[in-house]
Design a protein that fits this description.
Length: about 425
C-alpha cells in the first residue's frame, strides 16, 4: 500500500474548502511542492473555490427556473477551471513547473447525462506526458466530455473525488489522497456528533454504504471506482499533518475497529418522500408506476407499499428520491394518473434519513432492536425502514435528524472519550 516512503505516483485531490481563497491556494501549493520534492510524480485534482458551485447554481436559477443541462454544465465547470489555473500559478511561483488541464484535456470521457455523467473511459495521454517531462499536472475536477455529443459534462455534486480516483486508476497511481476540511472519515459527521471518532481504516464495502447513505466526505462513484480498480484512498485534512483514514479492501490486522460491529452512522437531508394515495391493488399497477419513474430517470431510494387493512382494494405507495428530482417525478406521475387510477399525490420534503452501517451486522442479531430503542428514547418517530445486509436506514422528520444521529451514535458505543474531531473550514453546505 502507498503508506511506505517509496517514491511513486500520487494523485492528490483538494476540495473547495481547501482552496477557498488565495491563502488556501498558496498553502495547498506548498503541500504539493513538498510531495514533489520528496521525489514523487504528482497529479492534482482540484475543486471549485469555496462555495463557488452553489453560487453559480444560484445565478443560473435567477436567469432561468429550469436551466438547460448542457449550459448548466458549461457554467459549473468554469468553477474548477478558475481553481486549476490559480493553483498552477501558485506552484509556479514556488519554482516548480505545473500545467493545468480541463477534464476533457485530461481524457475524462463520460456518457452524455448532464449533471450526473458517468465516467466510461479515461485516456490521460497529456497528463502522462506532463509527468514524463517532470511537471506537476493539475486537473479540473468534476467534469468530462461526452463520448457521443462531445459536450462538456459534470459528474454530479462532489464529483471531483471521482475524477481523482478515475485518474489514479488509469495512471496506476500508488495512492489517491483526498484532502478535505476534516482529518478523515469519522463514525458520523463531526458537524453533528461532537464525539465522533476518527476511523483509522474503513473497507470499500462499508464506505460505499456510508457514501450512498449521505456521508458526503467521499463521492459514491469514487468509492465504486476505487473498489473496482483496487485504488487505496487516503482521506485526510489539507489543514493538518495528521494521518487520515485509509479506505481499503480489508481492515489491516490490529486496527482497533477490526472487530467493530458498526462502522458509523450516516445521515441525508437531500431526499424527499412522495406518497401515491389510493392505488388500485392489482397486478401491473406498481409496474406501470415505476416504469414511468424509470423513464424519467428518477433515482428511487426506499419504497414502501402498504395494503389497506380496510379491505378497500386500495393501497398507498411511498418512496424517497433526491429532492431535486421531485418536480420531474410528480410531473410524470400526474401524466399516468388517469390510466393507473390512483386518488392523489403527496409531496414531503421535510424528511431526514439516518443509516447505520457496519459489516459486523451480518453476524450480530438485535441491531435493529437497539437502534429503534435509541430512537424511541430520543423521541424520534420512525416513518420508513429499509435494510441491506450491512445497513439499516430509517426516515424521520428532518427536524429530528440530528437528535436521531446523536442517539444512535451513543447507543452503539461509538462516542470517543474526548471530542476529537476538528472542523478546519467549509460551510458544511
Ligand atoms: P470537500 O469540499 O473537501 O470535497 P465535502 O464537504 O464534500 O468536502 O466533505 C467533507 C465534509 O463531509 C466534512 O466537512 C463533514 O461535514 C462531512 N461528513 C459527513 N459525514 C462524514 C463522516 N462520516 N466523516 C467525515 N466527514 C463527514
Ligand atoms: N465543485 C463541485 C461541487 O461543489 C464538485 C466538487 O467539489 O467535488 O459539487
Ligand atoms: Mg466533496
Amino acid at each position: 500500500m502507498g503508506q511506505s516512503s517509496l517514491v511513486g505516483l500520487i494523485v492528490q485531490k483538494f476540495g473547495g474548502s481547501s482552496v477557498a481563497d488565495a491563502e488556501g491556494m498558496k498553502r495547498v501549493a506548498q503541500r504539493i511542492v513538498t510531495t514533489k520534492k520528496a521525489g514523487h510524480s504528482v497529479v492534482v485534482v482540484v475543486s471549485a473555490m469555496g462555495d463557488t458551485t452553489d453560487e453559480l447554481i444560484n445565478l443560473a436559477n435567477q436567469v432561468s427556473p429550469m436551466p438547460n443541462g448542457r449550459e448548466l454544465d458549461m457554467l459549473l465547470t468554469a468553477g474548477e477551471r478558475i481553481s486549476m489555473a490559480l493553483l498552477a500559478m501558485a506552484i509556479s511561483n514556488l519554482g516548480h513547473e505545473a500545467r493545468s488541464f480541463t477534464g476533457s484535456q485530461a481524457g475524462i470521457i463520460t456518457d452524455s447525462s448532464h449533471g450526473k455523467a458517468r465516467v466510461i473511459d479515461v485516456s490521460p495521454g497529456r497528463i502522462q506526458e506532463a509527468l514524463d517531462q517532470g511537471a506537476i499536472a493539475i486537473v479540473a475536477g468534476f467534469q468530462g466530455v461526452s463520448q457521443d455529443t462531445k459536450d462538456i459534462t459534470t459528474l454530479g455534486r462532489g464529483g471531483s473525488d471521482t475524477t481523482a480516483v478515475a485518474l489514479a486508476a488509469a495512471l496506476e497511481a500508488d495512492v489517491c489522497e483526498i484532502y478535505t476540511d476534516v482529518d478523515g472519515v469519522f463514525s458520523a459527521d463531526p458537524r453533528i456528533v461532537q464525539h465522533a471518532r476518527q476511523l483509522t481504516s474503513i473497507t470499500y464495502e462499508e464506505m460505499l454504504e456510508m457514501a450512498a447513505s449521505g456521508a458526503k466526505v467521499l463521492h459514491l462513484r469514487c468509492v465504486e471506482y476505487a473498489r473496482r480498480f483496487d485504488v487505496p484512498i487516503h482521506v485526510r485534512s489539507s489543514f493538518s499533518n495528521k494521518e487520515g483514514t485509509w479506505v481499503v479492501s480489508e481492515r489491516p490486522e490490529g486496527d482497533e475497529m477490526e472487530q467493530a460491529i458498526i462502522a458509523g452512522v450516516a445521515h441525508d437531508r437531500s431526499e424527499a418522500k412522495i406518497t401515491i394515495v389510493g392505488v388500485p391493488d392489482r397486478p401491473g399497477v406498481a409496474a406501470a408506476i415505476f416504469q414511468a419513474l424509470a423513464d424519467a430517470q428518477i433515482n428511487l431510494d426506499m419504497i414502501v407499499q402498504n395494503v389497506s387493512a380496510a379491505a378497500t382494494g386500495l393501497t398507498d405507495i411511498s418512496f424517497t428520491l433526491p429532492k431535486d428530482e421531485g418536480q420531474i417525478a410528480i410531473g410524470s406521475l400526474k401524466r399516468i394518473q388517469g390510466e393507473v387510477g390512483f386518488a392523489s399525490l403527496q409531496y414531503d420534503d421535510q424528511i431526514g434519513k439516518l443509516s447505520l452501517v457496519g459489516a459486523g451486522m451480518r453476524s450480530h442479531p438485535g441491531i435493529s432492536a437497539t437502534l429503534f430503542a435509541a430512537l424511541s428514547g430520543a423521541g424520534v418517530n420512525i416513518e420508513m425502514i429499509s435494510t441491506s445486509e450491512i445497513r439499516i436506514s430509517i426516515v424521520c422528520r428532518e427536524s429530528d435528524l440530528d437528535r436521531a444521529v446523536q442517539s444512535a451514535h451513543s447507543a452503539f458505543d461509538l462516542d470517543a472519550d474526548n471530542p476529537e474531531a476538528v472542523i478546519y473550514g467549509g460551510s458544511g453546505r
